[in-house]
Write a structure and sequence with these properties.
mainly alpha; 76% helix
Length: 336
């Protein structure tokens, strides 16, 4: 008689496969680009004290850039998964629900009024802006009874995002800082430094760890709040913590690379199709797959028109928009 494989065992196999794919994509991202880099150069750059032009390019330019892609992809994917679970909305995504637009607007305000602000100050302003953007969207969505329907929330997100982007653009033009703001809002990884990573990455790691710790509670919340209350969960406290995690992850991502939509929408759907509805499995796999997809998007952006760069936000949009349309056509029946 054939013994049935446990879901946790199957998940381990899927996780290993995702990690192998991630490592392969990381190597591809490190090799391909305007500079001619070999796998041997990567090995020496990572595991030796050798030094030449190619190794310097890897250590000072390409490696911090790809590490940024990894953590931003993981942060956006995990935040999107949490948002979809909390709201039971298949269209939830930090870029579609006002978080990244709010962070961009706050960033423009910070650059205009406190130009001497350090990177930590810019990151805090992005956190506050993301929180304000989310509050506006969900506030509008809650005005009418039954307002948290997927369509209403997305429409509110589109309206608030357009409003906040207009504010950011108006501030940039009035204070003549368009060039400075566009360097952040274009959605690029170019110019990422080790100093920026030292400030941003700990917040992303902390946010992902907290989400993993609360993944069991999120699974119950994603199914039914009544069941969660019946099981004795403190749903208001859990929701508050998870919303703080979403803001932390989205704000850190914007502070590092600017606006980035669709990554948080695509990845949770793909992962959910592979591992089911248990967020103990969805969140860690989303982090790995999100990092992999972000590495792919950045690699395509660097190589499609080399030596010139295609903005990674454009690559992500080209991958994400058809997926978004497909989900809208489905009507979110999977959440019913």
């Amino acid at each position: 008689m054939t013994q049935k494989i446990q879901p946790s065992t199957l998940f381990v196999y899927k996780l290993i496969a995702a990690i192998v794919l991630f490592i392969g994509m990381f190597i591809v991202a490190m090799v391909f680009g305007a500079a001619n880099i070999s796998v041997k150069d990567i090995w020496f750059a990572l595991f030796s004290n050798a030094s030449d032009d190619n190794i310097s390019i890897i250590r000072e330019i390409r490696l911090p850039r790809e590490i940024a892609a990894i953590f931003v992809g993981a942060a956006l994917a995990v935040s999107g998964a949490i948002m979809q679970g909390l709201t039971r909305n298949p269209l939830a995504d930090p870029g579609l629900l006002g978080l990244t637009a709010g962070a961009n607007a706050a960033l423009a305000v910070m650059i205009a009024f406190i130009p001497a602000a350090n990177y930590f100050g810019i990151m805090l302003s992005c956190f506050l802006g993301a929180a304000a953007g989310a509050a506006l969207v969900f506030g509008i969505g809650a005005v009418k009874k039954g307002g948290f329907s997927p369509l209403r929330i997305v429409l509110a997100g589109a309206a608030i995002s357009a409003f906040l982007y207009a504010i950011a653009e108006g501030i940039s033009i009035y204070f003549k800082i368009s060039k400075d703001v566009s360097m952040w809002t274009a959605g690029g990884l170019i110019g990422t430094t080790w100093g920026q990573l030292q400030v941003i990455v700990p917040f992303i790691i902390l946010g992902i760890l907290i989400s993993l710790f609360l993944s069991r509670q999120l699974t119950v919340l994603s199914l039914s709040e009544e069941v969660a209350v019946g099981l004795g969960q403190r749903i208001n406290q859990i929701k508050a913590i998870l919303f703080v995690v979403i803001i932390m992850l989205a704000g850190a991502s914007v502070a590092l690379i600017g606006n980035m939509a669709f990554i948080g929408l695509i990845i949770p759907h793909l992962v959910r199709a592979v591992v089911g509805t248990d967020y103990r499995f969805i969140l860690p796999l989303s982090a790995i797959v999100g990092a992999t997809l972000m590495l792919l998007a950045d690699t395509l952006g660097r190589t499609i028109n080399s030596p010139f760069e295609t903005p990674v936000v454009a690559i992500a949009a080209m991958m994400g928009l058809p997926f978004f349309v497909w989900i809208v056509r489905k009507g979110g029946h999977a959440w019913s």
